């Protein structure tokens, strides 16, 4: 069976500090990978998605970036955090295929920028 | 542009009763997928049910069913025999094709509280 890991679970960082959130998937190959942000009481905002190693698509221009150095590893980064970067970050994966498929989410990282 | 709308910010239901959570969508693409996810207070999103745009019958998964009305562009979630553990946020989502990939977009969610 497939599992998705995401860490850290919580993070408190000062404004202007760097960020690195990591997500790994086990039990499948060549998954589609996604990073979302959820502000308090809001829906999910898609930040980045990837259909393969080194292939990253950005949905929202901002001071965040994503990388996929390995097939099942997805990293969300920032060089300098802003207060507005606070939120709940979720990583997700889905099977690749010719049609729409459901997504499977990690446990999330709650980021507070102070 | 593709859009998902959930107009009910909060819903209350008595335990063992059925509840319907509303979802409407807007797209001009003929091929799309509709999904419902549950988010308990722990934060993790849990996939519940899927309906494809070409599916003729409504999807069902245990106590969950999706009332798909294509002409009205609605995809309501019906939870039968509500349980206390159903209390959570529920999100409707749609995937549409962009650049050869299926891109998901989510509604703002509905908070469901089940009373004993």
Q: From the alpha carbons, calculate the radius of gyration of chain A and give it in angstroms.
A: 14 Å
Determine the structural class of chain B based on helices, strands and strand pairing: mainly beta
Distance between the termini of chain B: 41 Å
| Assembly context of the chains | heterodimer
Mean pLDDT of chain B: 94
- The number of helical runs of chain A is 0
Structural class of chain A: mainly beta
> Order of SSEs of chain A, N→C?
EEEEEEEEEEE
Strand content of chain A: over 45%
How is the main sheet of chain A built? 7 strands, mixed
Order of helices and strands of chain B: EEEEEEEEEEEE
Number of strands of chain B: 12
End-to-end CA span of chain A: 38 Å
The fraction of residues in strands of chain B falls at over 45%
* Helical residues, percent of chain B: under 10%
Greatest interface: A-B, 24 and 26 residues
Mean pLDDT of chain A: 92
Based on Cα principal axes, name the global outline of chain A.
globular
Rg from alpha-carbon coordinates of chain B:
14 Å
- Work out the helicity level of chain A: under 10%
Low-confidence stretches of chain A: none
